[in-house]
Amino acid sequence: MSQTKTKRMGTKALYQALDQELRLARENKTYKVEVPVDSWQNGVVTAAGRKQVMLASNNYLGLANHPRIQEAARKGLQEHGYGLASVRFICGTQKIHLQLEEAIARFLGTEAAILHSSCFAANEAFFTALFSADFGETGYRDVIYSDQLNHASIIDGIRLSRIAVKTTDSRAYKHNDMLDLERYINMDQADQDRDYRLSVIATDGVFSMEGDYARLDKFVELAKKSDSLLFVDESHSTGVLGATGRGTPEHCGVHGKIDVITGTLGKALGGAAGGFIAGKKALVDFMRQKSRPYTFSNSLPPSIVCASLEAIKMLEEDNHLVEKLRQNTQYFRKEIKRLGFTILEGEHPIVPVMVQEASTAMDMSGHLLDEGVYVRGLWYPVVPRGEARLRVQISAAHEVEDLDKALDAFKKVGKRQGVI
Ligand SMILES: Cc1ncc(COP(=O)(O)O)c(C=O)c1O
């Protein structure tokens, strides 16, 4: 049998090849450059040698350095220590971990929740653990319906589960297109050869590149009709959407009706790190036994756990931060359009300002930094070709004067670049 001969790559050749890859990325303008923030994360930060209105962080509620969050983190450190030096199931669980899991479940209207080191880990864990379980059966196939623009961690979770078990099919339906999703489901249900055991619909609640959201009321209906499990990643929605910040389900009138919610503690809920899976008790308990990232990765440090508990407490007390975020978002969306910029319409604090060409996005983000606005440009391959944009993210930490400063800079730079 003939076999293609593999050319061995020694370490010297490997490093040369890596250099070449990086050179190419720089030439193609896909090389990611980090601009260090020299202050605490906030509505206004110090970076590139001057004050900047921060329009690039996921610090939606401004909790990243809120005095109450800092105090809770400090107390967490003092009372519960720096680290547990263990995974959860060995000796890495304190009462505060259980309290945070209860608080997340209570806030999201699910029976239970389980912490992970990040939402990335939680998403990978969910798909691989669930689809690796044969439940004592053989000869079955499972199917996952996934939005084409779902977050990388959902895509990787699905990929990993397909590699792990080879009994899972996946269908990527067009972004936020219920008809395309329904078409796939109907096609599969009509096909005798595709007699699926388990069917899961997976969507982001809010999509991070577009700032649009999934119509979860419709998803709940479709999941019920097709007897599918509905999975929603609420990383950009918890603390952001809904009158009380309970996310896309609250915004769509289906709070408490989503089978599985995953989310992060690294955005609105304090901005440090950590993630979770929330859902029925049986599913959460199953994850506690079977999630590999949970079983083989360290438990969250007490400072983060206590600060996250405080973030949820603040949201449960009242909605003033959610409301301030909403007002800031409405103000910025209205004013940036008034200046003549094209944005993707919506309600979310992610406001994509469309500039089409990658070079324009690149130049504008550089010039805006010079003018005191920290905002990142996104271009192909992160978004489709010709749809380059500046992704603005509004925060409750902004005051109207901050937004006005940013709008002035957008006006100046936009005119200079011929965008408005
Ligand atoms: C939709 C979505 N899911 C998951 C994640 C990952 O969250 P974490 O930073 O907790 O891993 C992100 C973060 O960018 C996200 O935007």
What proportion strand? 15-25%
Listed once per kind, the bound small molecules are: pyridoxal-5'-phosphate
Radius of gyration equals 23 Å
Mean pLDDT across all amino acids: 96
Looking at this structure, what is the CATH superfamily of the largest domain? Answer: Type I PLP-dependent aspartate aminotransferase-like (Major domain)
Structural commentary:
It is a single chain. This protein is α/β, with parallel strands linked by helices and 420 residues long. It has 2 domains: 32-60 and 320-416, Aspartate Aminotransferase, domain 1 (Alpha-Beta Complex); 67-317, 3-Layer(aba) Sandwich (Aspartate Aminotransferase, domain 2), CATH 3.40.640. 44% of the residues lie in helices and 16% in strands. It has 15 helices and 14 strands. It has a 7-stranded mixed β-sheet, with helices on both faces. Strand 4, helix 6 (152-165) and strand 5 form a beta-alpha-beta unit. The longest helix has 19 residues, at 320-338. It starts with 10 loop residues before the first helix and ends with a helix. The mean pLDDT is 96. Bound molecules: pyridoxal-5'-phosphate. Pyridoxal-5'-phosphate binds next to helix 5.
